[in-house]
Amino acid sequence: MSTAQPGPRSWMRDLSYIDPYEPEYPSSDGRPMAESTTQFRWIVTIKEGLDALFAAYPNVFVAGDLLWYATKGDKTDVMAPDAMVVFGRPKGDRRSYREWVEDGVVPQVVFDVASHTNTPDEMAEKRRRYDSRGVEEYYFYDPESGDFEGWLRRPDGPRPISADGWTSPRLGVTFKAPPRKEALVILDPEGRPFRTFGELAKDEKAARRIARAERRRRRVAERLTESERQLRAEADLRAESDRRLREEAERRAEADRRIREEADAHAAALRDQVERMAAMLRERGIDPS
């Protein structure tokens, strides 16, 4: 793990990420940060632990729940790890991590915390995509079951690691995976465990960061609710428009039917009149033709 701090000039170069924001790359995928309180606690615990671990290193960027765009011009090539660590990029606020703005630096370490909606196929696809982009270490934790897995990137693909007692080559942290359904323990290089969500909440600065993350989660949820309400309203309007169109079509069909009936009746009356006149002429000895 490189801990060298850049000099003044290289630090200024690293600030190049402060480019005008590109609005075509959204800062949210429309999904809440977490789908349960358990998942949220663990995302915060891991992200804040990593933040504290690299607080003294200005060239290590740590983020949680930040969209990562890999290819300029393709906003569909996006990933949303629960936490990521990027060595060689400066700290600072970002609306998203745009790889081309970050000198092409790929996040080296990625964490995902399971939610109850995740499927094995979905997680396998995530792992494949992270590997294809060049992520060196990928860790997946399911706090409800206690399952913890890790993969290390190799030339022939991601290699699973023995997670219990494993020390991350990049982070220097050690993972202790206890028996199932017991909490994962993450130890920093000094052997101190990452602080839990509750312990972090007692720290004023961490509490403010947690509060901001929670407010963001609520805003996303509110936007989703409003979006769903608008979609329902639009669907109702379309249904009402369809209903009116059907009624108008039925009225036109009824009018057409009446016109045909009146035309048929008029034609029948004319035929009767012609036949009566012909009969009268024949009675008088006149050929109707």
Can you describe this structure in just a few lines?
The protein is of the alpha+beta class and 289 residues long. It has helices spanning 8-14, 37-53, 120-133, 197-202, 204-283; strands at residues 60-64, 68-69, 78-79, 83-87, 97-98, 109-113, 137-141, 148-154, 157-160, 174-176, 185-187. It contains 5 helices and 11 strands; from the N terminus they run ααββββββαβββββαα.
Strand order within the widest beta sheet? 1-4-6-7-8-9
Unreliably modeled segments: 1-19
CATH topology of one domain: tt1808, chain A
Number of helices: 5
What integer is the average pLDDT? 82
Content of β-strand: 5-15%
- Largest pleated sheet: 6 strands, mixed
Oligomer: single chain
CATH class of one domain: Alpha Beta
- CATH architecture name of one domain: Alpha-Beta Complex
* Overall body shape: rod-shaped
Radius of gyration, in Å, reads 35 Å
What does this structure look like?
43% of the residues lie in helices and 15% in strands. The chain starts with 7 loop residues before the first helix and ends in a 6-residue tail after the last helix. The chain has 5 helices and 11 strands, in the order ααββββββαβββββαα. The chain has a domain at 9-202: tt1808, chain A. A hairpin with an 8-residue loop joins β2 and β3 (78-79). It has helices spanning 8-14, 37-53, 120-133, 197-202, 204-283; strands at residues 60-64, 68-69, 78-79, 83-87, 97-98, 109-113, 137-141, 148-154, 157-160, 174-176, 185-187. It is rod-shaped, with a radius of gyration of 35 Å.
